[in-house]
Design a protein that fits this description.
It contains eleven helices and 14 strands. By secondary structure, the chain is of the alpha/beta class. The strands form four sheets. A five-stranded mixed β-sheet has the order 4-3-5-14-6, with helices on one face. It starts with a helix and ends with a helix.
Length: 309
Amino acid sequence: MDRLLSIEAFVRVAETGNFARAAQQLGVTRSVVTHRIQQLEAYINTPLFHRSTRHVRLSEVGASFYRECADMVAGFNTLTELMRDQRAKPVGKLRVQMLPGFAINRFGALLADFTERYPDIEVDIIVNDRVVDPIEEGFDIAFQMFPAQAETLIERKLFSVYRLFMATPEYLQAHGTPERPEDLLKHRIALYEGYPTRNRWQFHHAGGVTELSMQGQIRSNSVHLLRDYALTGKGIVCLPTLVVSDDLLSGRMVPLLTDHTLASFNFSAVFPATQRNALKVRSLIDFLFERIGDEPAWDKPLLERGWIR
């Protein structure tokens, strides 16, 4: 029995809760993973999982064993990366899930610089706006706006995502400019459907908080589609400044209700705890921290104008 391979298989099954998914991530067949787990259980003389036709969950001994094994696998992977190159250059494949709001128009230029700095990292990027479990879906890092959903995940905030209601000058000239949140209900509204508050909106201002329920005539999971719709001059949208900062600064869009503040979200890197010391993971996260900084370039002029706060 190769104890390290068996322990790695055990950690993957524990994290994914699924033998087939663990096998896919390890690049072996399910029967190989099953055999390795059986060998490990026989070696320590106790079952590590409770199995049924639908579920796999850790036994009490398995839960305790997992904590130690996860650290062992993470340490071994880090050591392997370091030893593959005496100069500690990160190497290997980095599988990334990225939100479209950052991937389109923002991440491409950063990615070009990153791959030039780290030519031995092969980057595989999936772009979608789903909240994913990187362990379950086999990502090294997932960049998302909403909190990590499991204790086995680590979250590192990169920057704040601000939102504003806005419309084109042509739309406002034809239909009037909302002065209060309640005025939005008189207009044609297009909204992003992925926010956790759904139809409930809170506007914070000096006099307190105004709460509204807004369904929106148009709803989409694509902020870029909503931006394109707004630029036709047919309605009001609420979009992250990450996507529309240039439109606001050029005057193509006009910010609305800037004396009212919507809650912001954290744009974060979420990754498995077993990857916390992985050199290639740290390299991408540290690179983005370095290039974006505490005050992202797209938000700095909006903060200076007082449009966001």
